[in-house]
Structure formats: C-alpha cells, structure tokens
Design brief:
Number of strands of chain A: 10
Oligomer: homodimer
Distance between the termini of chain A: 15 Å
Helix content of chain A: 40-55%
Order of helices and strands of chain A: HHEEEEEEEHHHEHHEEH
Shape of chain A: globular
Largest interface: A-B, 41 and 41 residues
Strand order of the largest sheet of chain A: 2-6-4-5
Number of helices of chain A: 8
Strand content of chain A: 15-25%
Structural class of chain A: alpha+beta
DNA sequence: CGTTAAGTTGACACGACTCAAAGGCGGTGG
DNA sequence: CCACCGCCTTTGAGTCGTGTCAACTTAACG
C-alpha cells in the first residue's frame, strides 16, 4: 500500500518508479504520538522535517484569554515543516489532534532528495503551493461567511483532502475532532459550533453517525458552502469521480 | 537606490554584491499600471512572475452577493506569483489598489537566477515562508479578534512591512486604501470599518491626517492589537529599532 | 457504577450587518 | 473662481448573528 505522501503528490505531479521508491524510503520508521501531543512549540527551531502518515495534526497559536487558533489541519501526506528550517524559529506550534504516525526526516535528507529528482522538487513545490491555496481558502471562509456556511465549507474541504489520500468513501469520512477543536479552527465559540452542527443536521446537509460524517448530497452541500473544488488544486477538474474509488 | 526586493530579501538572507546585481537586473523595465487594474484574473494561467516595485496591489477573490475578499496585500518587494506557474491555474485574482510599478519577469529567468545562486534560492524560499507566516497571522486576526483589534493589528503589520522597504518613518506611513478596501480585507462591512477607525482615533491609538497614518505610541498600539513583531520574521528580534532609520 | 470529557440547552448581552440618507472632499468644466 | 459632480466618509436606527455564563445530559471508560 502506497504511503499517503505518494498518493497525494502523484495527483499533482507525475512521478516515475524511482521517485516513488525515494519517497517511500522517506516514510520508513515513523514515530507514534498520542492524541493531543505537541510536536513542536512556537519559538523553537525545527531540526527535522515532519510528515503525517496517519491521524490528524494541526498548526495552532495560543492567544490571550486562553483562546487557541487552529490555522491548519495536517492530514496524512502533509508536511509539517518542509523548509521551515530556513526561518529562525517557529511562529506557531504543531500538535496532534488524534493518535498519529509521523515520519521524522532530517532536513539534509530532504535537500538530497530534492536535488536527486527534479520531479520530486517540483512535487514538493506543488504541495507547498496547494497548502498556501488552502490557507487563502480558510481566510475567505473565516472572513466572509457565517457559522453554518463556514462549517459546511470545512466539511467539503476535509472530504476532498481525505479523499485524496484514500481516507474517505464516496459519501462519508471519519472526523475524529471534537466540537471544541472545530470551533477553534473556525474562530467561533464551542457553543455556537454545536448549534451550527445541529442546523446542518436538521437541514440534512450532513448526517453524523458517531465520528463519521456522511454527506447525502455532495452537490447540495458544496452549493450551500460556496465550495469550489478546483481551489484545492487536487480535485477532479470536470466530474466528481476520484482517481481511486 | 536599491530596489525594494533587495531591501527586503537582505533582511532575511545575507546576499553578496553579485546576488544584489542579479536581483537588481530582474527589476529593470517595470510596467506601470493604474490604480484598480487587474493584473491577472482567477482561472488564468500565469506566464510571467510579477514583482511589485512601487504602490500597493492585492490578491482577492470574488464571492456571492458581490462581496470581495482581499486575502493579501502586495507591497513593494513582494512577488505576486513566484512559482505559481507550477499550478494549473490561478485560484485568485491580483489587482492594483494604487498606481503601481510592476516588474514582469519570465518564469524561465527566475529558474536561471535560482540555479545561479544558492543564496538567492534561499532568499526566495525565505520570502515564500514569510508570506505564508503573514497569511497565518491574517487567519488568526480574522478568526479570533473583534473589529477594533483587527484593524489595529492590520495597521501594525503594514507599518512593519512598509518599514522593511523604507516606506515608513519612525511613527507613520502612507496608507492609500479606502475604508471599503480595508473592510474587504478584514471581512467587515465598510460601515463598520468606519466606526472601528473612529474608535481607534478617539482612543488616540492612531492619528490619521489625510492618507497618512501616524502612530503616537507604537508600544501601546501593538499591545492593544496583540501584535507580535517576530511573527513577520523580518522585524528586529529584541528591540523595536529598525535597521534603517 | 462512579468519574470525566464531550455534547446540549436556555437566557441574555453585545458586536456587527443592513438599509438608507446626509455630509465632506477633490476633481472637472464652465 | 465658482458650480457641479462623483466618490468617499459619516450617521442613525433596527435586526440578527454570535459570545458568554451556567447548568444539564449523554457517552466513554475502567
């Protein structure tokens, strides 16, 4: 079974067998982290490049009055700090949200890999740009939409991103986040997150069974959420059929 | 007089005379664009790499109900679309806000420059990471703070970023943006932006004289705004004295 | 079966949006 | 030099979304 890194990068850049072998090699000997564990804390200087193989992690910042802002979700196949070694110190922290398997790759190893294959170098750039695009999408979401639409948009994004690494079925995915964690990413109170979720369920835009989120009508949810799949740069351009069902 | 690109990059990475000459070369023959002109529109595929030399531009997305979300301010020294040629198409548009001088650099030229000097390559990476950090900072600003604090935070950011390219004095800078443009970046109505500005002036956190913003007490404004200069990765680490007064 | 974390509910306060209209300011042309 | 015009800024009033506080219910786990 291919690593999520290969699954993801292959959707943006075409890789040959040699590239894939090199990438798989990077993900050997992952380290296991319990849920809610800091991987690196604001102010530290990262020494390794980290890569999520299993589970969900997040970038976050702590603010006054005990508030926490989650500024990114790190899913399988996502780098935590590719090239951040260039900056003096972390401007945010990274923590696991669920139980995670993380590959820890020496920064030097990354540089070797980049110079060994221009396709891999390109793939890493692509991943960086996709992350940046996601960040802009979040910015629009937080700035311009109200609670229910925000939450719906987040669900659409998670659906497609998880789908990209074969972690979602055609109409559902597992979401192991608490309402408080959702509220920290959308910048709303957890009470309001709860009410927003109730609203979405009442309108049957989503159906929640335990920790799995089912989307009865993806078109309808995406329309409600003003969600444009293209902006993730990794979703099908014309139809909604993913590469690996 | 050095180009803003050199001024900016030199604060993150040490460059030698040869690097500087190469960078200056990139900024020859800029093109002039009137205020409120689209440079590139969502969906297009960029052919050139653009660089702001004078004026202020922005990244933006158009949304339903005629709303516009500004997701980044592009100041002198900022790249518009470094490496975005890797992605299929633009997921946002770029437009000037004021009269601008823009350098248009063939993508191939960028690649040549990067391979000619590892220091320049590093400097470009650094700039990309700084942009990403700014994006995260905006995310926190939009998600977690209320109107007046948001606006104060934006002013702090603009102050330091303009200072970086010698476009701000010790306690003031020129802000040629309308209240509507400010409101589009902070995700609030222009009416509310107006009231928020009145509040800041009443508290003498800022003094506005025409288009110049004066900050009587930077410490006080930054404290009010929860602004942490370090997060721009380009401001002094310990004291608040900039490199070029 | 007790304990703890997560989810749910209600009441109230306030920030922010909307609509609508009036005032200021800088341009342009007569 | 003044009148006009358009764009930006400012104001007011009413509505609605969201935050806060506090208590209660449910689920998870040993």
């Amino acid at each position: 079974m291919p690593s999520p890194l290969v699954l993801k990068l292959a959707k943006g850049v075409s890789l040959d067998a040699g590239d894939i072998a090199i990438l798989e090699e990077l993900t050997r000997n992952p380290v296991r982290f319990e849920a809610r564990t800091d991987l690196i804390v604001e102010g530290e200087k990262p020494t390794h490049v980290r890569l999520v193989l299993e589970g969900i992690a997040c970038r976050y910042k702590l603010l006054r009055r005990g508030r926490r802002a989650i500024v990114a979700h790190l899913l399988p196949g996502d780098f935590c700090d590719l090239h951040v070694t260039i900056l003096g110190q972390m401007d945010h922290s990274i923590a696991t949200l669920t139980l995670c398997l993380i590959a820890e790759i020496p920064a030097q190893k990354i540089n070797e890999v980049i110079s060994s294959s221009p396709r891999i170098a390109r793939a890493f750039w692509w991943a960086t740009l996709v992350d940046e695009g996601t960040l802009r999408e979040w910015l629009v979401n937080l700035g311009q939409r109200r609670g229910t639409v925000q939450m719906a948009h987040l669900f659409c994004e998670l659906y497609w991103r998880l789908r990209l690494v074969d972690m979602a079925t055609a109409d559902s995915f597992v979401l192991p986040l608490t309402q408080e964690e959702l509220s920290d990413t959308l910048g709303m109170s957890s009470v309001h997150a709860n009410r927003v979720l109730q609203q979405l369920r009442e309108d049957t835009l989503v159906v929640m069974q335990g920790r799995t989120v089912r989307i009865p009508d993806l078109e309808r949810l995406q329309d409600f959420a003003e969600f444009i799949p293209n902006n993730l740069h990794s979703t099908p351009k014309t139809d909604a059929k993913p590469a690996n069902g």
